[in-house]
Automatic annotation (TrEMBL):
PROSITE patterns: CHASE. Gene3D superfamilies: CHASE domain, Histidine kinase-like ATPase, C-terminal domain. This is histidine kinase. Transmembrane segments: none annotated. Keywords: ATP-binding, Kinase, Membrane, Nucleotide-binding, Phosphoprotein, Transferase, Transmembrane, Transmembrane helix. It is found in: Membrane. It catalyses: ATP + protein L-histidine = ADP + protein N-phospho-L-histidine. Residues 130-291 form the CHASE domain. The lineage of its organism: Bacteria, Pseudomonadati, Pseudomonadota, Alphaproteobacteria, Hyphomicrobiales. It comes from Ahrensia kielensis. InterPro entries: CHASE_dom (IPR006189), CHASE_sf (IPR042240), HATPase_C_sf (IPR036890), Sig_transdc_His_kinase_HWE (IPR011102). Pfam families: CHASE, HWE_HK. Its EC number is 2.7.13.3. The keyword Cell cycle does not apply.
Length: 546
């Protein structure tokens, strides 16, 4: 009796296992598609947010230039600085960098004369305004047809621009406008835009207060953006087109909602089923909600077809049971690996964001220091502009190497010299270096790249390279270790003149945590910092893998 029912039992068991295997295939395929979508969607949003942060840092550098040096009566220093940046080639999405001084109403003729001197252009201020102040565009680079249209435009006369300028003056930091139509929109490719303002206080120019309780200032530097170009630049660095993704961005500040960007044909798929990711990002004080969607397509149908085929084969061939079980286990392992990878990626991303925030703060402080030192040592404006631009470009190159490079084996000496040159510029030759040839693999190269950059930056700000009479020397050697074949020992000495300050490089901030995370946590070494009558000594010891 039991034997007669065995075919039915085997049929039922095989069919059940086949259905389980089919579901596992379908589910794992769907999870993999979701994971791929999330990675690309996050890349799109991160590219958009980091692109604006990069432009804000650029605006801060411009403010440092304007506050540090006198702009001549033709704006030459400002024009040359912007030209050296190469906005069109290196900063996609930005329309231009400009300078807009504040004039008390009634002094329009002085502003118009400045436009005449700067661009040899007869231009009346516009539009008419009843405000107490006029903030016209007097310098805007690069000097193309679009930007020439904006010269003489009184930005204080328009409410959205005026609100952003008041916020920047109040908070003393860059502030973005609500979405506006830029004056530069003169052709058929019309886009919404926005501007970011940073307050300035130029030398030898009368200051004003746009409100009684605000700090005095002389005007604003600003960056103008076309929102469509900014999004297209962020999308071009991802696989959004290949995966069929669509993007919509809304400005949702102060309980209002404005659609500022939509991918072509977005509305055709907005209400359909599929994958969706929504995140809110801070754009210089304004909240932007970015939605990325992937409409349901034939790929899910194909996954279902594959699952049904798996079940059918399991139904027809009992021998496929072992293969289906192996596939299921493999899918589970892949899912677990994907989960672990996602967790590790999230941790790495958090560390990277912290590092980026820390570097941006260091960069702004360093730009101010370089601007002051370069101004003191320069004989004239062209010499200052050239030196300052070279140092600013060296900083940008160092940021790009540390954020994107994937080094293979590298010489420790070459890595050290490269980092010192990127941070100190020509002054790197003043550092005394001594040590043998040491070859580092990718892991060690990345760790030491971050550590050396952090120590060099700290030295430029506070230590051995912060003054004209200070000095540095760096020595390294190979030494034998009890339980390992060899190790790398580094002694970093910074000599200070004048009163010793033991707070130099001794804080417990993110920089110190970053050094310990790489030397102690990543490489299993030790990091020690001490002070003597001459200055500071940093000792680093790490075991070498070979």
């Amino acid at each position: 009796m039991m034997r007669n029912r065995l075919p039915t039992i085997l049929f039922s068991v095989t069919m059940l296992l086949g259905l389980v295997a089919a579901y596992a295939v379908f589910n794992s395929t769907r999870q993999a598609e979701r994971a791929s979508f999330d990675i690309v969607a996050d890349d799109i949003i991160d590219n958009l947010e980091e692109g604006v942060k990069q432009h804000v840092a650029l605006l801060s550098a411009t403010r440092s230039l304007v506050n540090t040096v006198d702009i001549d009566d033709k704006g030459s220093g400002f024009k040359e600085f912007v030209a050296d940046l190469g906005l069109v080639e290196n900063y996609r999405g930005i329309q231009g960098l400009g300078l807009a001084p504040i004039f008390v109403a009634g002094n329009e003729l002085a502003a118009e004369n400045e436009i005449k001197r700067n661009y040899n252009l007869e231009r009346k201020l516009y539009p008419e305004s009843d405000e107490s102040f006029r903030v016209p565009v007097l310098l805007l680079e690069p000097n193309d047809e679009r930007n020439q249209k904006a010269l003489g435009y009184d930005m204080f006369a328009e409410s959205n621009r005026r609100d952003a300028m008041i916020a920047a003056a109040r908070d003393r930091r860059p502030s973005a406008t609500a979405p506006v139509r830029l004056v530069q929109e003169i052709d058929s490719d019309q886009q919404l835009g926005f501007l970011i303002y940073a307050p300035i206080k130029q030398k030898n120019i009368d200051v004003v207060r746009i409100a009684n309780n605000y700090q005095p200032l002389t005007g604003f530097v600003f960056a103008a953006f076309r929102i469509g170009d900014l999004h297209n630049a962020a999308l071009s660095r991802t696989l959004s087109s290949a995966l069929g993704l669509y993007v919509q961005t809304k400005d949702k500040t102060d309980n209002s909602e404005t659609v500022v960007f939509q991918s072509k044909n977005y509305e055709n798929y907005a209400d359909k089923s599929g994958l969706r990711s929504v995140k809110t990002i801070n754009m210089a004080g304004r909240a932007w909600e970015v939605e990325v969607i992937k409409p349901a397509s034939g790929s899910l149908d194909n996954s279902l077809l594959y699952a049904l085929m798996t079940g059918l084969l399991s139904f027809l061939f009992a021998g496929a049971l072992a293969s289906s079980s192996k596939l299921q286990l493999s899918s589970l392992r892949n899912s677990e690996e994907l989960r672990l990878y996602s967790e590790k990626a999230a941790q790495d991303k958090d560390l990277m964001l912290q590092e980026m925030k820390h570097r941006i703060k260091n960069s702004i402080a360093r730009i101010n220091s370089i601007a002051r030192q370069t101004a003191r040592s320069s004989n004239d404006l062209p010499e200052f502009t050239k030196s300052f631009s070279e140092r600013l470009q060296a900083m940008a190159t160092a940021q790009d190497v540390l954020a994107r490079s994937k080094w293979q084996r590298a010489s420790f000496g070459d890595l050290l010299r490269s980092e010192l040159e990127q941070v100190f510029g020509k002054n790197a030759n003043e550092v005394k270096l001594s040590g043998p040839e040491v070859s580092l693999d990718e892991k060690y190269s990345q760790a030491f790249g971050l550590v050396l950059h952090e120590l060099a930056t700290n030295s430029l700000k506070y230590g051995g390279m912060s003054g004209t009479e200070n000095a540095m020397q760096i020595n390294w050697k190979i030494k034998k270790l009890p339980k390992r074949k060899r190790g790398l020992s580094i002694v970093w000495r910074e000599n200070f003149t004048g009163e010793k300050t033991e707070t130099v490089s001794a804080g417990g901030g993110f920089g110190t945590k970053l050094i310990n995370a790489n030397i102690v946590g990543e490489l299993g070494g030790s990091f020690d910092r001490s002070f003597d009558e001459k200055g500071m000594i940093v000792k680093i010891d790490v075991p070498l893998t070979q």
